[in-house]
Design brief:
alpha+beta, Phosphorylase Kinase, domain 1, Aminoglycoside 3'-phosphotransferase, Chain: A, domain 2, two-stranded antiparallel ribbon, 11 helices, 9 strands, globular
Length: 332
């Protein structure tokens, strides 16, 4: 979206005249973000990826996620998109976008996160899991009929295009199949126990000022609460090299326990194995972008290529830590 399109958007929505040229914000892996200052205030415009918005279910998914964000704001400090004439999604020409109030907060990097932050976030996640979304009639689109991904298809495509990640994918292809099968076998039995959650509550999606503010609700929907708990606790306890800090991890769990009214019991091995699915889905999407299968421009293709290697290494680290994390959970 060009500055002229943002100006048209501001005029259309009555946000005032732009006083400072819009500036691109870093951090968005799928969409483009811009800081916009007008005579009426400061805003963030999230320009939605055209390739994603071309999918049949994309529009409804965004409408649903903003419904969830608006309701979640009753229970947790959430930032839904602004509504204009009752709609959260705005259109300028062929481009769709969301508009948010500007928040004077910053996301924390792993070196800045301490056990107190983890305990706060555990409590917030518990409050979200206990929120009442029943009257919104959100459809549960989580499929119990998951199929194995054909990693060999992407390997062959990578070899044909001399992709830089080809050797790494080849070296790990057998393990990817094993992790994929284990994840599917573990995810199906827990699919009947679901709550509405954020779905991607890692540190980049929380801005800290006076209180933490939860942003970017695009992935919100039904999740198994135990799997969501463990995945999010890991997000908040990883250091820069991907190692998981036990004290931070257990502080997150403790914050969650203090808010919920139920004891936390689960087949932790099954829960941890199901955690491969989200990581494998992201790996596949990154491969598609890198190979120009789901991609609109060179910048996005480059981002996909960069994500492949990092995601593969993150999955390997996770596999190596599962047994140890299971031991921590049995302690509590």
């Amino acid at each position: 979206m060009h500055s002229r399109q943002i100006e048209i958007l501001c005029n259309k929505l009555g946000l005032g005249d732009i006083t400072v040229a819009p500036t691109a914000l870093s951090g968005g892996l799928l969409h483009r973000m811009y800081a916009v200052q007008t005579t009426s205030g400061r805003y963030v415009v999230k320009v939605l990826n055209p390739e994603i918005m071309g999918r049949p279910t994309a529009m409804q998914n965004f409408i649903t996620s903003e419904l969830i964000a608006s309701r979640a704001a009753i229970y947790v400090p959430a930032l839904p998109a602004k509504k204009f004439n009752g709609a959260s999604i705005q259109q300028v020409g062929e481009q769709f976008c969301l508009v948010f109030e500007w928040i004077d907060g910053k996301s924390l990097n792993s070196s800045s996160i301490n056990t107190a932050h983890c305990k706060i976030m555990g409590s917030i996640l518990s409050s979200l899991h206990n929120g009442d979304f029943s009257d919104l009639e959100i459809a549960n689109n989580s499929s119990a009929d998951r199929r194995l991904t054909d990693w060999n298809f992407y390997l062959k495509k990578g070899q044909q295009s001399n992709a830089e990640w080809t050797s790494l994918l080849f070296e790990n292809s057998e393990m990817l199949n094993d992790w994929n099968a284990e994840a599917i076998n573990s995810a199906n039995p827990i699919s009947s126990d679901m709550v509405i959650s954020h779905g991607d509550l890692d540190p980049k999606n929380v801005l800290w000022d006076v209180e933490p503010i939860l942003i970017d609700w695009e992935c919100s929907g039904y999740r198994n609460p135990k799997q969501d708990l463990i995945e999010t606790a890991i997000y908040w306890s990883e250091n820069e090299s991907g190692e998981i800090d036990k004290d931070k991890f257990l502080s997150f769990i403790d914050g969650y326990k203090r808010t919920t009214q139920e004891q936390i019991h689960a087949n932790w091995r099954m829960i941890l194995a199901s955690g491969f699915l989200g990581k494998l889905d992201w790996l596949e999407y990154s491969l598609k972008r890198s190979l120009w299968i789901d991609c609109t421009d060179q910048e996005e293709q480059k981002a996909g290529t960069e994500q492949v290697a990092g995601t593969l290494l993150a999955i390997k680290r996770y596999a190596e830590k599962i047994t140890e994390i299971e031991g921590w959970l049995k302690e509590i």
